[in-house]
Specification:
Blueprint lengths: L2 H11 L1 H37 L4 H27 L6 H6 L2 H20 L3 H19 L5 H30 L10 H7 L10 H25 L4 H22 L5 H15 L39 H10 L6 H20 L6 H8 L3 H11 L3 H12 L28
Helix pairs in contact: 3-6, 3-7, 5-6, 5-7, 6-7, 9-10, 9-11, 11-16, 13-14, 14-15
Length: 417
């Protein structure tokens, strides 16, 4: 008898039972609708709260790690029955205790990383427990292939967790855990195929050409001072002339003041390399000597125009060396001395150490140390070299020679000096 005929016969024979069944079915359908709607809302809320803000790679990491953990738990299910002899509720309660411990350690490690930027001992526990469950589940394998699979699944889950932690750590701290010493970028820089800075090709080429000019000039000067034969001098001067021609042609040296200052700076540094051994920079870790009074003694006026190297300067430097200010006052004096130095260099005047000490109240010994460092800068060095060409040697007492504009008479000729 067809099903529809059976239903029709039952309805005609049991009308009351049919009505009750219909009402119960309608109530169940309504309850099912509300349950499904509530479940949908809860799922939608959880999705927007926990899933949507996460990147796609984090979601895929969680899914893959969950699958790998399930494979490991299935192996422990068989191990607990075949090896340990667990059965029934006892097997259900105890088979996955290691997996639960792994998940607990992973959650604690993530929380510790967010608070202390390190997974700590919980991160080590994740790997240790993962290796333990991998070994135990593979011991009950029926073939070598199954044993390898049992070993690989927990390790894959641990690796995915570790990579998720690394991404989270980089997102929070902005840095990675380590920096590899051997990278493609480092190797390309080492062999000269890549540039360390973000300079353009034209800037790199200009810098190299200016450096060649400076090195050629230094070599020619060293040969001249050493009394080299004429043949070597002619070769050195010819090389200097070639490098200068190339620099003027390819770098715009003749019309670019920035490139001119860069060339002078390189020449100044190369010509005065020996001056580095005479410097006496302050020791940054030396303790500050105790002073009786925090007040800085009044500056002693400089008596006359004396050389920094004569006996009077040495005596005054020895006397001022005992006058040490506290760090704040010393920093203020250094700033004032630097401002005075820059202002005088703008006027094409190289201040003496006594001038610096007189203008700022700085001890003369400190002023001499500052001047020994500052006179190596390109602009000051250029003024000193200009004075040296006029036969004046830098002893710390001379001003740069300033050539006044020639006076013009009524007929246009210059006046005699």
């Amino acid at each position: 008898m067809p099903l529809i005929d059976e239903i029709a016969a039952y309805v005609s024979d049991q009308p009351v039972g049919t009505a009750i069944i219909c009402v119960a079915g309608l109530i169940l359908a309504i309850l099912g609708f509300f349950v499904l709607r509530a479940a949908f809302r809860v799922g939608n809320r959880l999705f927007h709260r926990y899933v949507a803000p996460r990147p796609v790679e984090d979601i895929l990491t969680i899914v893959a790690a969950s699958i790998a953990t399930g494979v490991s738990a299935q192996g422990m299910w068989r191990f607990s029955s075949d090896v340990l002899g667990f059965d029934g509720p006892l097997r259900l309660l105890l088979f996955a205790f290691i997996e639960v411990a792994v998940i607990t350690s992973a959650v604690r490690a993530r929380r510790n990383m967010r608070e202390n930027f390190s997974a700590g001992i919980d991160g080590v526990a994740v790997w240790a427990l993962t290796c333990l469950t991998a070994v135990l589940s593979s011991m009950d394998a029926r073939s070598p292939a199954e044993a390898v699979f049992r070993l690989a699944a927990p390790l894959v889950a641990a690796w995915l967790w570790e990579r998720g932690m690394a991404i989270e750590r980089h997102r929070i701290t902005g840095r990675s855990r380590i920096h590899w010493r051997l990278t493609p970028e480092r190797m390309l820089v080492r062999v000269g195929l890549a540039e360390v800075s973000d300079r353009t090709a034209s800037e790199v080429d200009a810098h190299r050409r200016l450096t060649r000019v400076a090195l050629a000039a230094k070599k020619a000067r060293a040969l001249r001072e050493a009394g080299a034969p004429d043949r070597k001098m002619r070769a050195a001067l010819a090389k200097l002339d070639r490098e200068m021609d190339r620099a003027v042609e390819h770098t715009g040296l003749a019309a670019d003041p920035v490139r001119q200052e860069a060339l002078l700076a390189q020449i100044g540094a190369l010509y005065n390399t020996s001056a580095l051994i005479d410097l006496s920079p302050p020791v940054p870790w030396a303790p500050e000597p105790e002073v009786g009074s925090p007040a800085l003694p009044a500056a002693r006026p400089v008596r006359g125009m004396f050389d920094d190297d004569d006996e009077e300067a040495e005596a005054l430097a020895a006397e001022d060396s005992a006058q040490v200010a506290d760090p704040a006052q010393r920093a203020a004096l250094m700033r004032a001395a630097r401002e005075y130095w820059d202002k005088q260099i703008e006027r094409k005047f190289v201040p003496r150490a006594s001038d610096i000490a007189h203008e700022t109240g700085m001890p003369l010994s400190t002023a001499r140390e500052c001047r020994a460092l500052w006179k190596l800068e390109p602009r000051a060095h250029a003024l000193i070299e200009a004075a040296r060409e006029h036969g004046i040697v830098d002893t710390g007492t001379f001003p740069a020679i300033e050539v006044p504009e020639p006076a013009v008479t009524a007929n246009g000729a210059t006046s005699a000096r």
